[in-house]
């Protein structure tokens, strides 16, 4: 019953998407406002209908309606309610519907918020987003329908993949999708600005919050994924340069480049074409990210079973989007004259230019590594994988370069700086950075790039806090305020700048986490019988017993391990090997003890012989800094979002 | 005027240098990091040229071939594509899904012409969640779909 309502609602939404595409264009052509209004109303209606459709699918899950193929494939009678409700995006059909629903929601918000402020570009924005919605709904309805019936219905479903039965995995896709879909709005505004040749930089100001929001959501989505991989997959790491992880990382990189380079356009009217290029690329990569996962052309743990028809449709969709966007960009390129020119390497715009160079090089690196195996497989019969060493080799220098620029960029003035000014602003930070790099090996950071990274973290930290103190002093002197009051006023009056700097500080903490966990992880494979002990770092671990444990839809072998460290309370760790009822293969549940200093991570392996079990034990320094750093980053973005437009002085 | 032109040239030069360095970095790292994938038959046919090179071999774990050395994490088994069997040696933790009669990808090197020493074992995931490179079928399918779309 509910699934028919959902199906029908989606069909009407498809028809309305055609209206959303066509009506504003008719309105522009015949200068009839009423047609544009119709477009706007249909945007709201589509949002309502797709909300109904998504609700219908969720209700089918909650009712255990196994006559719906999608429900039968992704749920079972024993699946807890929480996972039943969220299994909607556990497979590709449902997640595409979810994508379409998010897009319709964002389109409705854009149509509501920007209606009065952007009358000229609005019809074009609506039409472009209508086209996107149409493309997605065609895919949902005709090539990967979650509404299909399964007759006769099975008595019980196949259950949700056990790896996905985890809170981390429940929240990972929605955030990622919010990020991907969010970039559609700035993209549409950029295209509309190109078509109408209006307002030059207006589209950037209009969509600043959308861009920031999308980038923040993408960050949360990626970090959730990394966190899930870390505690669910049992391999002690959080990032494997898997093609699908890469797919989410690419729009993150170009989106970050965009966030920086639009500031140059806003302040100096430069990089106009480049910014359009970046937003098109970012949105195209967002689509690529969605599609790569959903088409199954890539080999990865994330890839679902393949369907050739879908692959073709997706490639055609991408081709149309790219041809339209870049065609328009080249066609209208003469409108984008850049008046001012860059005249010094010692300027903020130049440091942003190099920053963009690094970020885009990073994105190209990932793109090459992700698509090269596909190209090789298609053009020859050879199969090839690009390993993590490639990415690590390239990304370590890129990260170090980005760190150096991060110290420079926000402090150095626009247009040009002078040597005296540079000396005053950077000399102390530079000296501290160099001293830290030289001293790092004495504190155990014996790895070359680790020592440089540590030095740079200090360099950037000192420039950032130095700048805050300098600015606060100026305010204190001018308005005779107390130090804390002056700092507070500074940070709250200019939320854009200090939100941005907060993101930088979060990044520094994260990089410290990368250095610690990436270079100094200790790993031990061994087998233990009851009563056996082992040591790792300052920890001593003793196996007390291996018992049976069970919950609603799984049973498990559970090891009980006592972990002791001098001067601390002993801990009990319980790693498990679970077997979910509907699935024959076991899954690993690592036991993790997390602290600010290091994580202790224990995985239970197979029984080697009677009473003897294999274990893999990791000691990973500073992993939790990655989660803390990313939280600060996201808070920084939200802080920056709280400030509206810059007041023109 | 000349100095302004010079300055702009210098700026361009800097950008090109940085860009060039990045491209060089990517390309030099890339060639070394490729790991080719072979079926057991291919891997045996090319044993000589593949010696000491890191490769991946994909096939099935031959039923009845798995031998565990009691009290250690050392195992031996045969990887097969039903025409050729390759003896594989491995020491360490096994992935959850590693089982006899299941698909497997082993990454490692030929130690001698008779023995492949694996450093990493990737097992096939459950039925409804197939990493494509683990199954010949999957590869054929995705290739077909791509070729189709390219035409």
Please render the helix and strand layout as text:
The complex is a heterodimer of chains A (649) and B (151).
Chain A (H helix, E strand, L loop, with lengths): L1 H28 L3 H30 L6 H6 L6 H6 L5 H22 L8 H22 L23 H16 L1 H13 L5 H5 L1 H25 L10 H26 L3 H24 L12 H24 L16 H32 L3 E4 L1 H21 L10 H21 L8 H32 L3 H11 L1 H25 L2 E8 L3 E4 L2 E13 L2 E11 L6 E3 L2 E5 L5 E4 L1 E4 L3 E12 L2 E10 L1 H19 L8
Helix pairs in contact in A: 1-2, 1-6, 2-5, 2-6, 5-6, 5-7, 6-8, 7-10, 7-12, 8-12, 10-11, 10-20, 11-12, 11-14, 12-13, 14-15, 15-17, 16-17, 17-18, 17-19, 18-19, 19-20
Chain B lengths: L1 H31 L1 E5 L1 H6 L1 H4 L4 E7 L5 E2 L5 E7 L4 E7 L11 E10 L2 E9 L12 H15 L1
Parallel strand pairs in B: 1-2, 5-7
Antiparallel strand pairs in B: 2-4, 2-6, 3-4, 4-5, 6-7
Descriptive keywords:
heterodimer, A: 649 residues, alpha+beta, 4 domains, six-stranded antiparallel beta sheet, four-stranded antiparallel beta sheet, 20 helices, 12% strand, B: 151 residues, OB fold (Dihydrolipoamide Acetyltransferase, E2P), 2 domains, 4 helices, 37% helix, 31% strand
Description:
The complex is a heterodimer of chains A (649) and B (151). Chain A has helices spanning 2-29, 33-62, 69-74, 81-86, 92-113, 122-143, 167-182, 184-196, 202-206, 208-232, 243-268, 272-295, 308-331, 348-379, 388-408, 419-439, 448-479, 483-493, 495-519, 623-641; strands at 383-386, 522-529, 533-536, 539-551, 554-564, 571-573, 576-580, 586-589, 591-594, 598-609, 612-621. Chain A is built from 20 helices and eleven strands. In chain A, strands 3, 4, 5, 6, 7 and 8 form a six-stranded antiparallel β-sheet that branches. Chain A has a four-stranded antiparallel β-sheet with strand order 2-11-10-9, with helices on one face. The termini of chain A are far apart. Chain A is of the alpha+beta class and 649 residues long. Chain A folds into four domains: 1-165, no CATH class; 172-336 and 344-388, no CATH class; 418-520 and 626-641; 522-621. Chain B has a five-stranded mixed β-barrel with strand order 2-4-5-7-6. Chain B is elongated and about 80 Å long. Chain B has four helices and seven strands, in the order αβααββββββα. With 151 residues, chain B is of the alpha+beta class. Chain B is 37% helix and 31% strand. Chain B starts with a helix and ends with a helix. Chain B has helices at 2-32, 40-45, 47-50, 136-150; strands at residues 34-38, 55-61, 67-68, 74-80, 85-91, 103-112, 115-123. Chains A and B meet through helix 13, helix 14, strand 1, helix 15 and strand 2 of A and helix 1, strand 1 and helix 4 of B.
């Amino acid at each position: 019953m509910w699934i028919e309502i959902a199906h029908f609602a989606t069909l009407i939404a498809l028809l309305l998407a055609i209206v959303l595409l066509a009506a504003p264009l008719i309105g522009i052509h015949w200068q009839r406002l009423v047609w544009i209004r119709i477009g706007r109303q249909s945007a709201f209606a589509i949002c309502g209908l797709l909300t109904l459709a998504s609700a219908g699918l969720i209700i089918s899950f909650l009712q255990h309606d196994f006559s719906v193929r999608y429900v039968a494939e992704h749920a079972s009678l024993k699946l807890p309610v929480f996972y039943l409700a969220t299994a909607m995006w556990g497979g590709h059909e449902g997640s595409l519907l979810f994508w379409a629903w998010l897009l319709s929601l964002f389109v409705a918000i854009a149509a509501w918020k920007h209606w009065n402020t952007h009358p000229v570009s609005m019809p074009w924005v609506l039409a472009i987003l209508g086209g996107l919605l149409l493309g997605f709904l065609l895919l949902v309805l005709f090539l990967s329908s979650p509404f299909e019936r399964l007759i006769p219905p099975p008595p019980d479903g196949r259950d949700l993949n056990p790896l996905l039965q985890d809170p981390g995995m429940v929240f990972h896709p929605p955030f990622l999708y919010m990020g991907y879909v969010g970039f559609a709005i700035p993209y549409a505004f950029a295209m509309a600005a190109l078509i109408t040749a209006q307002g030059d930089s207006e589209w950037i100001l209009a969509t600043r919050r959308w861009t920031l929001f999308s980038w923040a959501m993408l960050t949360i989505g990626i970090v959730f994924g990394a966190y899930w991989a870390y505690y669910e997959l049992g391999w002690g790491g959080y990032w494997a340069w898997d093609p699908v992880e890469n797919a989410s990382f690419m729009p993150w990189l170009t989106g970050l480049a965009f966030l920086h380079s639009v500031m140059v356009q806003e302040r100096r009217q430069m990089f106009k074409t480049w910014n359009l290029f970046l937003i098109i690329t970012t949105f195209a990569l967002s689509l690529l990210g969605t599609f790569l996962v959903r088409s199954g052309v890539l080999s990865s743990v994330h890839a679902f079973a393949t369907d050739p028809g879908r692959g073709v449709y997706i490639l055609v969709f991408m081709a149309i989007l790219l041809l339209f966007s870049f065609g328009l960009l080249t066609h209208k390129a003469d409108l984008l004259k850049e008046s001012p020119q860059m005249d010094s390497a010692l300027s903020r715009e130049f440091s942003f230019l190099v920053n963009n160079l690094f970020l885009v090089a990073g994105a190209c690196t990932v793109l090459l590594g992700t698509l090269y195996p596909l190209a090789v497989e298609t053009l020859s019969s050879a199969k090839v994988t690009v390993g993590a060493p490639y990415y690590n080799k390239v990304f370590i220098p890129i990260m170090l370069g980005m760190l150096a620029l991060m110290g420079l960029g926000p402090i150095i003035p626009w247009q040009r700086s002078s040597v005296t000014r540079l000396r005053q602003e950077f000399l102390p930070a530079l000296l501290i950075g160099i001293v830290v790099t030289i001293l790092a090996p004495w504190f155990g950071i014996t790895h070359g790039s680790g020592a440089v990274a540590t030095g740079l973290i200090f360099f950037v930290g000192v420039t950032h806090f130095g700048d805050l103190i300098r600015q606060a002093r100026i305010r204190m002197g001018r308005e005779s305020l107390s130090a804390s009051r002056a700092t507070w006023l500074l940070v709250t009056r200019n939320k854009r700048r200090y939100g941005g700097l907060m993101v930088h500080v979060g990044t520094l903490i994260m990089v410290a986490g990368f250095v610690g966990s990436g270079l100094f992880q200790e790993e031990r494979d061994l087998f233990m019988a009851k009563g056996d002990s082992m040591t790792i770092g300052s920890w001593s671990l003793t196996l007390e017993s291996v018992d049976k444990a069970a919950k609603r839809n799984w049973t498990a072998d559970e090891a009980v391990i006592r972990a002791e460290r001098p001067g601390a309370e002993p801990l009990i760790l319980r790693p498990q090997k679970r077997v979910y009822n509907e699935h024959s293969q076991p899954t690993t549940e690592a036991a993790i003890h997390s602290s600010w200093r290091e994580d202790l991570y224990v995985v239970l392996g197979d029984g080697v012989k009677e009473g003897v079990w294999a274990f893999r034990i990791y000691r990973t320094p500073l992993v939790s800094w990655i989660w803390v750093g990313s939280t600060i980053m996201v808070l920084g973005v939200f802080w920056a979002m709280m400030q509206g437009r810059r007041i023109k002085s | 005027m000349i100095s302004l032109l010079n300055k702009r040239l210098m700026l361009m030069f800097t950008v090109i240098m940085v860009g060039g360095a990045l491209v060089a970095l990517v390309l030099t790292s890339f060639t070394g990091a490729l790991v080719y994938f072979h079926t057991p038959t291919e891997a045996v046919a090319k044993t000589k040229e593949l010696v000491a090179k890191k490769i991946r071999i994909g096939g099935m774990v031959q039923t009845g071939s798995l031998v565990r050395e009691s009290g250690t994490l050392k195992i031996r088994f045969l990887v097969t594509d039903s025409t050729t069997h390759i003896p594989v040696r491995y020491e360490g933790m096994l992935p959850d899904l590693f089982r006899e009669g299941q698909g497997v990808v082993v990454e490692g090197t030929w130690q001698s012409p008779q023995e492949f020493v694996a450093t990493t074992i990737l097992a096939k995931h459950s039925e409804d969640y197939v990493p494509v490179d683990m199954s010949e079928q999957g590869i054929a399918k995705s290739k077909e779909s791509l070729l189709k779309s390219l035409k």
